[in-house]
TrEMBL record:
CDD domains: PGDH. Residues 17-328 form the Enoyl reductase (ER) domain. This is NADP-dependent oxidoreductase. Keywords: Oxidoreductase. The keyword Secreted does not apply. It comes from Mucilaginibacter psychrotolerans. GO terms for molecular function: oxidoreductase activity, acting on the CH-CH group of donors, NAD or NADP as acceptor. Pfam families: ADH_N_2 (PF16884), ADH_zinc_N (PF00107).
């Protein structure tokens, strides 16, 4: 039974040596417990924050203890009345091939093979983040211009599509030609810009947003966000979802230095955690499922295979190696 633990706290960008694999006995389910076999592991940028020994909204990971993330697992033995062998469950579980659980926090997911991994993405945490952050804070109106950074990722690709469904002009920023192509061809963005090769991002944004920017859904922070924020309109809304470009900095510069623009434009910049909007999860899930079934919404996944590759897949998030949701299949 392989178990991946945090061996040392990453300094800057995580490297494979920050992780270690231990071998343990496969545990046995006691009364009131289930034995789970890990099937799909979600790797997410926020895990980087939990690898630092600093105060945050979730406790830091402990050294030499298993890492955890959203996992879909199969019940392979059950001494729990609510779960039976063969059930697929979703939970915040450990990076272990096999583990026991008392069932607390586990949710049985419908046995729908077409959608199973979607519960880690569009119908899971990242889809709910996209839906709630955009609708609650972005409050899009028909004809407005929405700019999305990290646009080809798990959250960004859903934000952009919802923006289109709700009648916005949608402009996406992403870091490769393949991603830019994916944004316009598959996700129906009006314009996509490769921020890595575009020599003048501000000029490209100006061309892409002739009526300015009404909503900026920020996944990355840093200089990309500065370029967008300089072009916001009066009463713009800025859902601050994440800042991946800063997560590996030891001491990120304290900003934003964009206050004069926010004042001048009477703009709202609003950081959020998806859990802030738990009251909307049912509505969001019903709506996202309906759009998926109607073919109005689609999703993309980068599937890495093999338990040993979980750390590498996680590191890949900081190198832009994923299109859509990054998932490890065991
Ligand atoms: P993604 O699927 O978007 O994966 C990360 C992507 O970020 C990479 O593919 C890469 O794309 C981009 N990236 C990596 N490094 C940089 C950099 N230095 N500058 C700019 N872009 C970079 O991840 P998620 O969709 O899961 O998460 C997106 C953001 O949303 C993250 O900041 C995350 O922390 C946040 N988040 C917040 C939640 C909340 O509750 N507030 C919940 C879930 C996510 P590219 O090739 O385009 O550079």
């Amino acid at each position: 039974n392989k178990v991946i633990v945090l061996y040392r706290r990453p300094a800057g960008k995580p490297v494979p040596g920050d992780f270690k694999t231990n071998i343990e006995e496969i545990p046995i389910a006691d009364n009131g417990e289930v034995l789970l076999k890990t099937r799909y592991v979600s790797v997410d940028p926020y895990l980087r924050g939990r690898m630092n020994d600093t105060d945050s909204y979730v406790a830091p990971f402990e050294l030499d203890k298993p890492l955890q993330s959203g996992i879909i697992a199969e019940v392979i033995d059950s001494k729990h009345t609510q779960f039976k062998i063969g059930d697929m469950v979703l939970g915040n579980l450990s990076w272990k091939e096999y583990q026991v659980s008392d069932g607390v926090g586990l949710r049985i997911i419908p046995p729908d093979p077409e959608y199973i991994t979607a519960y880690l993405g569009v119908l899971g945490m990242t889809g709910l983040t996209a839906y709630t952050g955009l609708t609650r804070i972005g409050k899009p109106k028909t004809g407005e211009t929405l700019v999305v950074s990290g646009a080809a990722g798990a959250v960004g690709s859903i934000v952009g599509q919802i923006g289109k469904i709700l009648g916005c002009r949608v402009v996406g920023l992403a870091g490769s030609e393949e991603k830019v192509e994916l944004l316009t061809s598959r996700f129906h963005f009006d314009v996509a810009i490769n921020y890595k090769t575009e020599p003048d991002l501000s000029a490209a944004l100006k061309t892409a947003c002739p009526n300015g920017v009404d909503i900026y859904f920020d996944n990355v922070g840093g200089s990309i966000s500065d370029a967008v924020l300089n072009q916001i309109n009066k009463y713009a809304r800025v859902p601050v979802c994440g800042a991946i470009s800063l997560y590996n900095d030891a001491a990120p510069a304290m900003g934003p230095y964009i206050q004069p623009v926010l004042v001048k434009k009477s703009a709202l910049m609003h950081g959020f955690l998806v859990s802030d909007f738990a009251d909307q999860f049912n509505e969001a899930t019903v709506q996202l499922t309906a759009w998926l079934k109607a073919g109005k919404l689609t999703y993309h996944e980068t599937i890495v295979e093999g338990f040993d590759h979980i750390p590498n897949a996680f590191i890949g998030l900081f190198e832009g190696r994923n299109e859509g949701k990054m998932i490890v299949k065991i």
